Amino acid sequence: MFEIRRYTADDRKSWDGYVRRARNATFLFERNYMEYHADRFDDWSLMFYRQGRLYALLPAHRRDTTLISHYGLTYGGLIMDIHVTISDTCQLFACLNDYLRHEGFTRVLYRPIPWIYHVHPSEEDLYAIFWQCHARLALRNIGTAISMPQHLRWRKDHLRRLRKAHENGVTVRANASIAEFWPILTDNLHKRFDAKPVHTLDEMLLLQSRFPDNIIQYSAYREGHIIGGITFYISQQVVHGQYSGTNDEGKEYGAMEAIYEQVMYQDYKDWPYLDFGSSTEEQGSVINAGLIAHKEGYGGRGVVYDTYEWEL
Length: 312
Fold this sequence. Notes:
single chain; 312 residues; alpha+beta; eleven-stranded mixed beta sheet; 10 helices; 33% helix; elongated
């Protein structure tokens, strides 16, 4: 049997310590990241104990009578260390359902961590929610990722723009200024998608100050001025492009290609995956064909981001 406790501020050290040794977690689950937008979510993160030892974590929040893991993050799901087994995971979800019913919940929305972020195979939760919870697939989104050690050949238009970047003196700087990049990003999102960044500039600067080794800004320059950039989230398995954008000059002179060349073939060439993120609209039901083709042109292929649902 498991003892289930709701996370409190007194648990911060135990929570973060477990996240750092887990086999399927990233820095997004550390409390310093999760709580930058604590005012937007009713946190209901849970800690599972067995024989007095912390066994697993579930980052989550409450909306009415639904437990959600987790809309404030790119993904959620059960966080597990190397000692978690499939039999125990099935028992854990049975205990979780009993606990949630007792607390007045009627439904669960569950967003597992995509497999490319696993240091070791970690899909015990997917088996358990199917058999123990009778979960159904509620939503499927598609992202694009590259297996970096394979070095797939770029498409001709990317190679052409990369040559143009080299010929026209485009340079790339790591640990560049996010504030310098932000006007290009916001203008690009507004013009192309009539959208805004999920984070404000102040939020990104705060998060970067908390995670300077994990949030790295790369920017491209020509003749001394910025023409584009990518904000990368760096985890143990994956280099993830959180935000990217160029101005017209950056599109003309291959700013994105110059940055990806440095990241993929120099600075992070030993990382297993580069994750471009999703290229869909309307909750994953509509593919932005141009955007996803752009990412596939670097050699990227599909990784799904799923949401499962079950009634209590």
